Amino acid sequence: xxxxxxxxxxxxxxxxxxxxxxxxxxxxxxxxxxxxxxxxxxxxxxxxxxxxxxxxxxxxxxxxxxxxxxxxxxxxxxxxxxxxxxxxxxxxxxxxxxxxxxxxxxxxxxxxxxxxxxxxxxxxxxxxxxxxxxxxxxxxxxxxxxxxxxxxxxxxxxxxxxxxxxxxxxxxxxxxxxxxxxxxxxxxxxxxxxxxxxxxxxxxxxxxxxxxxxxxxxx
Length: 219
Hints:
Strand order of the largest sheet: 1-2
Number of helices: 10
Mean pLDDT: 91
Number of domains: 2
Strand content: under 5%
Largest sheet: 2 strands, antiparallel
Helix content: 40-55%
CATH architecture of the largest domain: Orthogonal Bundle
Oligomer: single chain
CATH topology of the largest domain: 434 Repressor (Amino-terminal Domain)
Shape: globular
CATH superfamily of the largest domain: lambda repressor-like DNA-binding domains
Order of helices and strands: HHHHHHHEEHHH
Number of strands: 2
Distance between the termini: 35 Å
Radius of gyration: 21 Å
């Protein structure tokens, strides 16, 4: 893993720690162990930079914060589609840290549905590959043996709920994109924050891209 990737892992774990700042530290690591089934000592050791993240930890981070998973793996964001970075991280080329609650709900609902459908098919690596792998039949891709089970589940209440969340997200997309397109702050001293960063105060905090400054704050 690259140094930059390890930095992203640490920044994401720092966001987890910050989000639970009302919990006593020891209780937080224990709670994380209960949620992820990964030993609290492992989490704490990674946070204290005494070991690197394991593949199990990376998978757990993706499930805990699916809205950050794309950024964690690539280092970039796609904020228009709900793929953001934690507030602990500066991002580029996009700069906005605007949350999209409906996208987060959709990601989480999709993970829960996927996990339920796959639950009986991933006891071994061989069975997991069998459940997921597509094959070529007469020069066409055919879905795996899992496809019949997916169709059996597509009329379930859980799947319908997932589709409803997606529909709500799409209905709200215009407003979401409009917020990302608001170029300037109405307040010359910063927008909606008590102590604004003077280097970024010329832009609305949710504007997606960086825009040049024409002042002396960069000196």
